Structure prediction request, 300 residues.
Amino acid sequence: MNEFENCVEGRDELREELEEIKSELTELTNSLNKQKCDQQDLKHEKEKLDGIVKQYRDKDKYYKEQLKKLKFETTPPSPPTEQQLEEMVKVDLTTEVAVEEERLSVMKPNLAAIEEYRKKEEVYKKKVEEVDKVTGDRDTKKKEYDDLRNRRLTEFMAGFSQITINLKEMYQMLTLGGDAELELVDTLDPFSEGIILSIRPPRKSWKNIKNLSGGEKTLSSLALIFALHQYKPSPLYIMDEIDAALDYRNVSLLGHYIKERTKNAQFIVISLRNNMFELADRLVGIYKTHDVTSCISIAL
Prediction:
């Protein structure tokens, strides 16, 4: 479970880092797109200036051809020379270029943004790989966890069904006619609410175990213990005066059951009823004389 939680926490941290990197990548992408737009604008301006230059050259050529066709009666003013026209065009172009350079200097494009974008992209790809790895580890641990839960449920339900059958048999044997039932409070999730033990003593109605008398509670509890012992035996049981609330007949039934049916375990029973301890393999007596406690053991 700890490893699974660590994987989940690691995945969440990596996702936060990825979100930060994505934000930075978005900003760099927007900056790069803006610079590309500015470059396109400059390109259009350059094309526009080239068009203006071409237009001036065409006009110069046209005017020269027209001047050749004119005939003056008096001496006309000297037309501008080709060098003068080129100087005029050059002045106009210089002005346009100065305006565009000033505009470009104000924009201050960050030419290192492309390289920074590539570095951030590499970091982003590495973080994505880490997230994928952590997600895969999380899915693996979750599958193992779900498999264990399903296995626990399967084994529990198999044992629960067998113990319920054993309980019916044990209680009917101890009471000579009663009935007992184990019920799940929540059948969809047996581990959330617990189990109810319902008992029907001989010639009586069904009751919850808490509503039974002392002797009936004793027999019900012992029937459940013996049902569990039959399903999965324990090597040792210690029972303290379990026969105190039982009558002579039930004490004899209980003693003979322990004697005959539970030979694969050791029972230590504290009892004051002779029809119980007379059936023991070994009897240990505790007594007190002259304020001194003594013990004596007898093999029967």
